[in-house]
């Protein structure tokens, strides 16, 4: 494998976005924040802030999901660009399983339940191909349930 990271260009991002919108039966397509897209694509190339591939991948997914750079499909494009970044850098197996394995995680990133630091821990486990350790599992469960582990809230109707 080539150690030089292959980055995604703005033009590629728009092409991936267009194909993703078409493949997922549409949506209200369009770029809402071109500056945010460009800044994110540029910033992941800064090795001082994001020195490893995993850190770059995590930042890319987090920012495209939470940044709302597009009119529609921000979670979908975060997943799709993550898979594309993996593919482009010869992480072929990881690219194949990325979207399915991280779909629920990205939903909770968009809902501001999963922080950038927690996403990096998840991505680190994903990239080394290991299961989540118990601490990470608990942190994910707490984040996804806003600390309630799913026993309270609108889905829970306890009659006294």
Helix proportion of residues, in percent? 55-70%
SSE order, one letter for each helix or strand: HHHHHHH
Second-tier CATH architecture? Up-down Bundle
Overall 3D form: globular
Number of structural domains: 1
Total helices: the number is: 7
Measured between the Cα atoms of the first and last residue, the distance is 61 Å
Spell out the CATH superfamily: Fic/DOC protein, Fido domain
Average of per-residue pLDDT values: 89
Largest sheet: none
How would you portray this structure in words?
- The structure is a single chain.
- The protein has helices spanning 10-23, 34-43, 53-66, 74-88, 92-110, 116-128, 134-144.
- With 160 residues, it is an all-alpha fold.
- It has one domain (10-144): Fic/DOC protein, Fido domain (Four Helix Bundle (Hemerythrin (Met), subunit A)).
- The mean pLDDT is 89.
Question: Briefly, what is this?
Answer:
The chain is mostly helical and 160 residues long.
Helix-strand layout with pairing:
Elements: H1 10-23, H2 34-43, H3 53-66, H4 74-88, H5 92-110, H6 116-128, H7 134-144
Characteristics:
160 residues, mainly alpha, Four Helix Bundle (Hemerythrin (Met), subunit A), 7 helices
């Amino acid at each position: 494998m080539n150690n030089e990271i292959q980055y995604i260009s703005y033009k590629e991002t728009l092409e991936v976005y267009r194909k993703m919108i078409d493949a997922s039966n549409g949506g209200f397509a369009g770029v809402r924040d071109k500056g945010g897209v460009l800044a994110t694509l540029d910033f992941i190339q800064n090795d001082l802030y994001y020195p490893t591939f995993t850190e770059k991948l995590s930042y890319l997914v987090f920012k495209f999901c939470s940044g709302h750079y597009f009119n529609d499909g921000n979670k979908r494009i975060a997943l799709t660009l993550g898979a594309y970044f993996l593919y482009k850098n010869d992480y072929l197996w990881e690219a194949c399983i990325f979207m399915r394995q991280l779909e629920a995680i990205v939903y909770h990133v968009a809902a501001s339940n999963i922080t950038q630091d927690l996403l990096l821990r998840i991505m680190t486990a994903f990239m080394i191909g290991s299961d989540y350790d118990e601490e990470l599992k608990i942190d994910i469960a707490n984040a996804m349930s806003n600390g309630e582990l799913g026993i309270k809230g609108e889905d829970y109707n306890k009659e006294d």
